[in-house]
Design goal:
The protein is of the alpha/beta class and 577 residues long. Helix 20 links the parallel strand 11 and strand 12. Helix 14 packs across helix 23 and helix 22 packs across helix 25. A seven-stranded mixed β-sheet has the order 10-9-8-11-12-13-16, with helices on both faces. It has a five-stranded parallel β-sheet with strand order 3-5-4-6-7, sandwiched between helices.
């Protein structure tokens, strides 16, 4: 069956044109309206008798599916229910998520998607997206062409570093499918223009390999030159088959994530949300927090608890923010310290990767530190000596921010900024309640996962979630709607500032440095416009898009509501607007 979105030449009304009648319309999750088809549509489309006689409004259907959602007993059961709804009626699924975004985002994505990835082979229902295995490395073009239509956005993973859970093999497909659901729910990228891809090169997770129901390749991961050759072939195929698509890398091992971003960023429109998106979200939270502290960006000092790909992205964007505030590169770099599993990273280490070396503290400096062991300076000791204004956790180590650590931050700051961002919640460096209690209510806190409000000494704090969904959907929207050809670091600094501007005084008064999730489509719109403006300034998009930019972006944002469906037998339908 072929279909497309069209506009009536007289009324301008958008409708879905189909070249098939009958049951295929009910099986396609985008054309299916189930009991929502009108009596006239049922007659014209050959649907009479195929659905119950009552014609339901969308509100009635929403009441029905929400009732069924609420009776599910566990978060995983709710995830499976929503996935099944998406498989049969995408419009209704996205409208349900839109109307209950606070409640359902943690189910559709983090933290529940982590459990869904672990259980992927046991809860698998229906294929979505593409699976490209290492054994198919000579047929990637043909596999890409098996997809129904050219995508606007591709999210790809190899499943090796899923959240804080590690290697999940083919189960990692839950991440790009969930992520793309948010591209649609939060930014209005049409669901039929999204494509999740799983690159299966095996898994080193023995539990998965021992599982008789495991759906992926049953061997250890391909690595080294063979792995990179496979990735190269995949990117080459994407450039040939889908040259206008945005390619987002997701949940690759740190070294691979950094390698692929550097290797391909100048060849196609591509970015890595774990590196660049996370950095923009953190920077936005910092900009907002400074409206509470009254301090200037140029006066900030940061300790990063964790030294993975996210930490590298945060550090690099923080340097850009400091330089934007007037510091030199060297001055900005000196405002950042990193602490990994071995303690504070210093230049005394014999061998270091480039990122750690760039932010390693000078030996002469740490020689003046008050510490028990200069060879292993703890996080608490780092704070007491380096005196950071902000502490950011990306370690994936639950409990890293101990009471002593948080109290050390409170000892050197009147309003310490403490962001324990690791996901899922079990991997968070501390809870919001702990950060507030241990700082005597003075910490400005944001968490990576959803957090309930905290009541401390009679005051209620709304905890802002440093959710990448505030950034990556809008980035994708801007790249697609703006016809942007390349993604640059400067875009993410502009994105951070645009998002921070949407944090209201009411948010700040509640202690939150991010907007309510209910405003996320507004956030995505602002982010998209920021991306396009920077792209035009840097020569990566046409200046012709700037007049009426905000209206152009608004029109590009698909909203989940039922469109009329019309049968058009006389022509082959291939155009998707």
């Amino acid at each position: 069956m072929e279909w497309s979105t069209e506009h009536d030449s007289v009324t301008g009304e958008e409708y879905i044109a189909v070249d098939t009648r009958g049951e295929p319309l009910l099986r396609d999750p985008f054309t299916n309206k189930s009991t929502g088809f009108t009596a006239a549509e049922r007659e014209q489309l050959g649907l009479e008798g195929l659905v119950p006689p009552a014609v339901s409004t969308m509100d009635q259907q929403l009441a029905r599916v929400y009732e069924n959602y609420r009776v599910q007993q566990t978060s995983l059961e709710r995830y499976v229910y929503l996935a099944s709804l998406q498989d049969r009626n995408e419009t209704l699924f996205f409208r349900l998520v839109h109307d209950h975004i606070d409640e359902m985002m943690p189910i559709v994505y983090t933290p529940v998607v982590g459990e869904a990835c672990q259980q992927f082979s046991h809860i698998y229902r229906r294929p979505r997206g593409l699976y490209i295995s290492y054994e198919q490395r000579n047929r990637i073009d043909a596999i890409l062409q098996n997809h129904a239509r050219p995508p606007a956005v591709i999210v790809v993973t190899d499943g090796e570093r899923i959240l804080g859970l590690g290697d999940q093999g083919v189960g990692g497909m839950g991440i790009p499918t969930g992520k793309l659901s948010l591209y649609t729910a939060c930014a209005g990228i049409p669901p039929y223009l999204t494509l999740p891809i799983m690159l299966d090169v095996g898994t080193d997770n023995q539990e998965r390999l021992n599982d008789p129901l495991y759906l992926g390749l049953r061997h250890k991961r391909i690595r080294g030159r063979e792995y990179q050759d496979f990735i190269d072939r995949f990117v080459d195929a994407v450039i040939r088959v889908y040259p206008d698509a945005v390619l987002q890398w997701e949940d690759f091992l740190k070294a691979n994530a950094l390698t692929q971003l550097a290797r391909f960023r100048d060849r196609l429109c591509t970015f890595n949300d774990d590196i660049q998106g996370t950095a923009a979200v953190v920077a936005a939270g910092v900009y907002a927090a400074l409206r509470i502290t009254g301090q200037a960006m140029r006066d900030q000092r940061v300790v990063l608890g964790g030294a993975g790909a996210s930490a590298q992205g945060i550090a690099n964007l923080f340097v850009s923010a400091l330089r934007d505030a007037g510091l030199s590169y060297e001055e900005a770099r000196q405002r950042i310290s990193t602490v990994d599993s071995r303690g504070l990273v210093t230049k005394a280490r014999a061998e270091m990767e480039d990122f750690k070396a760039a932010y390693a503290r000078p030996v002469e400096e740490v020689a003046t530190y008050a510490c028990s062991d200069p060879a292993h300076i703890t996080l608490e000791e780092t704070i007491r000596n380096f005196k950071p204004t902000m502490l950011i956790g990306t370690s994936g180590t639950g409990g890293l921010f101990t009471e002593a650590v948080v109290r050390a931050m409170a000892a050197v700051n009147d309003r310490p900024i403490v962001f324990p961002l690791s996901n899922p919640t079990s991997k968070s460096e501390c809870t919001a309640e702990q950060a507030i209690r241990w700082s005597d209510g003075r910490a400005i806190v944001a968490t990576g996962g959803p957090s309930d409000p905290v009541v401390h000494r009679g005051q209620t704090y709304r905890i802002g979630q440093g959710n990448n969904a505030f950034v990556f959907p809008g980035v994708g929207l801007g790249l697609w709607a703006g016809g942007v050809r390349r993604v640059t670091d400067g875009m993410f600094l502009d994105v951070a500032q645009a998002l921070a501007h949407l944090v209201s005084q009411a948010d700040l008064d509640q202690g939150a440095v991010y907007p309510e999730l209910t405003r996320i489509r507004d956030c995505s719109h602002a982010v998209a416009c920021a991306v396009i403006r920077r792209a035009v300034a840097e020569g990566h998009a046409s200046p012709g898009i700037l007049p009426g930019l905000e209206e152009t972006v608004s029109r590009a944002m698909w909203f989940p509501t039922y469109r009329p469906v019309r049968y058009q037998r006389s022509r082959r339908i291939i155009q998707i607007e």
